[in-house]
Amino acid sequence: MNEINKNAHLLPNTTLSYIFANNADNEIGSCTGTMDVLFKRWSSPINYICVKAYRLMAIIGGLASLNSKEMPHILNIYKMPQLSYGSFDPALSDKTQFPSVYRMMPNERPQYVGIVQLLQYFGWTWIGLIASDDDSGESLLRTLTPQLLLNNICIAYKEIISTLKMLWGGRMQMLEMVERIGNILETMNANVIVVHGGSRSMAFLRMTLYSHEKVEMKPKEKVWIIMAQWDFVSVYPREIFPLKSFNGTLSFSLHANDVPEYEDFVETLNPNESTLYYIYWFWAYAFRCSFPIFKLYAHTANCTGKERLRSLPGAVFEMGMSGQSYSIYNAVYAVAHALHAMFSSRAKKKAKGVRATWNLLNIYPWQLHSFLKHIRFNNNAEEEIFFDANGELTTGYDVINTITFPNESIHKVRVGRLNPQATEGKQFTINGSAVVWHHKFKQIQPQSRCVESCRPGHSKIVRQGEQICCYDCAQCSEGMVSHLEDEDHCNKCPEDQHPNKNHDHCIPKHVVYLAYGEPLGIILASFALFLSLITLVVMWIFIQNQETPIVKANNWNITCTLLISLLLCFLCSFLFIGEPGKITCLLRQTVFGIVFSLAVSCVLAKTITVVLAFMATKPGNRMRKWVGKRLAVSVIILFTLIQLGICALWLATSPPFPEFDMHSQTTQIIVQCNEGSAAMFYTVLGYMGLLAIISFTVAFFARKLPDTFNEAKLITFSMLVFCSVWLSFVPTYLSTKGKLMVAVEIFSILTSSAGLLGCIFLPKFYIIILRPELNTRDQLVRKQYYAT
User: Fold this and answer.
1) Least packed by Cβ within 10 Å: which of 3, 148, 492, 525?
2) pTM for the whole structure
3) Cα(350)–Cα(699) distance, rounded to whole angstroms?
């Protein structure tokens, strides 16, 4: 009022005045007080205002929920603007029922969102809930409880506290209430308790905490989260304020900013000079002194008026502007700006020649509504003040951390902000590192959970019949992972990753193929190269000795073709080593099938040639005309072309291609060749096996022919080795995976090829190199003679 009346730009030549009335503690008192303010105070009968000196334009009040509806019902009759700074009753937001009510605080529902976000920020999932037994408490339970459950926050216990007046008649009932609350706080293991309710309903909680702290010397060391409905610091008498219990409290408070010169103004207050309502009563009991002139005997010493408010403990008086004080401050300014706007509007009409006057007798409270609804101004704290569509301020809430000290001093620190007008994601902010916790927690963030958190690598298993916050932990199964604490279920890693040992992180899989640089690749490549060199040596020896009888006797052309095909068999092993590509995948099995079919066809041609050559030696036998190069070449070309056609059909219909096998091994990505068509792959192998069986059969029946012309024994043994290798290859190949599968095929290629090379050519190589005396025409003729 002092600021406004001194402001030459706001309501010039107009003085605002005020009157105080008691905020009654019951509905009857509220009705009586309201009528007294409207009429009786001016000695006027009901519905008549006889005093013409000034108008009552608005009422500012902070009402408890019990009587918050009584005044509006009466004042709505007279369309009197009512600016409430203390009532959170949700019914007052109904503009149809209460059109004249303006609330100098935001809607309480954003607090519910703030509570959930605050609990989530600190990881508290197991909480207690204490609410008042009124409409506001019912609204809290109806709205907040589902939000808590939706965010996996459980209520360990829930206590509804009746208001003080309901139990005022029975001392025993009061003691039972205090005892019940104390037992709940003693037995429940939740470290965090959310409190919602007005100062009257929470009187029992304060009395309980005081009893445990001062009488039983067992302060309730909890984290109290107090909603804005209860200004828990403002306590009378100050002796029953439980300092230790409320140390480290977090509270949602009506938003307040520092107003310049406010503390200086408070410092000037003096009961001997001030006309503030009840200042003598407050002064006497705050400073424990007496005012005999007003018959106030609070203590033996008399009040001097020179006592300093700054010296009072924080539990008795706060020097800074509280949230409620800030709301009252803005309410007074809102009325002043609305009046100024109304007077300015009248002045404009007068300037235009419209009949208008500044006479206070011509203005009425209901005319102020249209200006209050649209008022928008910046206060002295440089904050914009305006009402939303529901007649409420949108200033939000502050999160206050209260620290108490043994000397009854209290320090309040703003550690967070709840601003519904902020952008999405920034509506709730908090500085957790600035919070001072109760000394019990030794400045370590308190925990409030039903059970210990499940570590990463585990998932939750809810206990049967208990709340979702009470659960057991199970380690993630093979191939599954959980990155965070308290995961509801484990998840699979991406295809190219696998879980680590603890199942709490995904790590990249190793790319695996049979490489030249690893031991197995080196061994197989060396083995293939060694056998290729041996084949070249054998070929060179045979070329050097092609005119000798033993080489001529075994069909040099077929022998040379067989040696070349065996060399290609050894060399095709290199197609299976190294990282598979498009070309290598196309060539691997087809080249292997063709060159092996060529080799087996050569063996079959040698076997048929041996048989026909023996039969041709008999007199009068017609088989002589079949003996020659054309038959052997025809056999080799025919059977090789058949395999070539199968491979061509394979490449045309479903060719092999490189692929990444991410599922066969948990920790590896296998780079392999997909055969495209398994049927064609096994057709190639089957055809090659068929040739080998035919060759083995023919050679087996021809094994007893005379030695001079006979390679059948050697071919029989070589085909036996060949068939044994490839028969054992199939089950072994199917039972292995990855690079071992490739290694099995390379080993089978090298072993079977080496069997053919060794069994067919080693005896001849032995004779040529070590027993040249046996490699003569006379020796062959002598053997022929004995054979006949």
Assistant:
1) 492
2) 0.68
3) 131
